[in-house]
Amino acid sequence: MNDSSWGTPSEPGYWGPAGQGPAYGQGPSYDQGRAPAGPAYERHAVEETRPMPIVPDMPDVPTGGGDGDQDVDPGAARLSGPLFRDETTTPQTPPEPMPGAAPQPAPAASSQPQPQPSVPKQKKSAGRDLGAAIGVGVGLGVVIIASLFIVKAVFVGVIAVAVVVGLWELTSRLDERKGIKAPLVPLAVGGAAMVVAGYVRGAEGAWVAMALTALAVLVWRMTEPPEGYLKDVTAGVFAAFYVPFLATFVAMMLTADDGAWRVLTFLILTVVSDTGAYAIGWRFGKHKLAPRISPGKTREGLVGAVTFAMAAGVLCMEFLVDDGTWWQGLILGFFVAASATLGDLGESMIKRDLGIKDMGTLLPGHGGIMDRLDSLLPTAPVVWLLLVLFVGS
What is d(CA 392, CA 387) in angstroms, rounded to the nearest whole number? Predict the structure, then answer.
């Protein structure tokens, strides 16, 4: 086959020499849509070295529009379309949230605000059954006053019974909550003897009975294994001092000529102090007095206790105690409010340590006997001492 088989330059199909494209200026014109010839290489080489289309850096380049630019491959990417194979033109699904990202809130079902259920306002509560508390308090008052003014020895017996029950409550709670086994038998016998000795022999008899009770606790505990001996006898000596020894000062007040009125003054001032603290603190209390010990006590309640006790002290010293004066009542009321508050906080500290609310359940609305003696016990020596200084023994 010779070169003439390719045709002549004047013919439309003429390609020129082998391996070359159509002669320049021959063949279809550019206006007919044909692209200019590529480099003068073999035909298969042209196909293998076809240049990649260049995507212009401008938005939305059409894939072969009506301007005759047919060199743009229909499969080439567009800037306005998906850049990767995964990005198809199918409807997109919502993207998955990134790990740790806050969840998007769901669209509201309705644009109208939903009414919130009204929460009833809680009333202030005293925390106890006031009806039962008042009833029990009145009953105890009748027993105390009747025994106090009829036969003094009966009132001493009432003190001794209260001491024994208080010791039982205290030692029981120590055993239940802390595993401390303070011996109850020597405490109960020694505590009752301590009260009687204070009434008969005064302060000297009370101290002797206290020492003998502590010795009895040490010896009694020796009958059991030595494990826990130190903590048991320590708790026993503490219980002997805290309950019967402090209660002995009430019996010593009773020995004076106007002893019954002195004891009544002591009881009235302590009860009035507690009542004033409760009433004012419940109504106006906002600032906590000792939140870690007793969250219910407030500074306003303390002011109420002092105010009520001082007012009651003036009245009691003027009308109940022989040779008493009003200014002595002010001082007495102030110290009674302070000692009663400290005594209440002291027992609250013990109950916090034991993890209990009340020492017992013997008195409905009050708890146990120890829950009523908490402010009376530390106040007794204070009143006894001040009355001795003011009006003598």
Answer: 7
Classify the C-alpha dihedral 167-171-176-178 as positive or negative.
positive
Place of tokens 């035909």: 43
Tally Cβ neighbours within 10 Å of residue 219. Answer: 11
Complete DSSP assignment for 250-296? HHHHTTSTTHHHHHHHHHHHHHHHHHHHHHHHHHH--SEEETTTEEE
- Whether residue 310 contacts residue 329, with contact meaning beta carbons closer than 8 Å, is answered with yes
pLDDT (tens digit per residue) in 341-377: 999 999 999 999 999 988 988 877 668 899 989 999 9
Question: pLDDT for 41-80, tens place per residue?
Answer: 444 444 445 555 555 555 444 444 444 444 444 444 444 4
CA nearest to 359, candidates 378, 374, 342, 376: 374
- Which amino acid, one-letter code, is at 310? M
Supply the DSSP symbol for 182.
Answer: -
Contact 30, 36 (CB under 8 A): yes
What ranges make up the beta strands (E) of 162-244?
none
pTM, whole model, 2 decimals? Answer: 0.67
- In the numeric block, which tokens belong to residue 165? 């029950």
CB burial of 88-113 (b: ≥16 within 10 Å; e: otherwise) equals: eeeeeeeeeeeeeeeeeeeeeeeeee
What distance lies between CA 63 and its chain's CA centroid? Answer: 70
CA gyration radius, the chain: 51
Query: What residues does 363 pair with on adjacent strands?
Result: 367
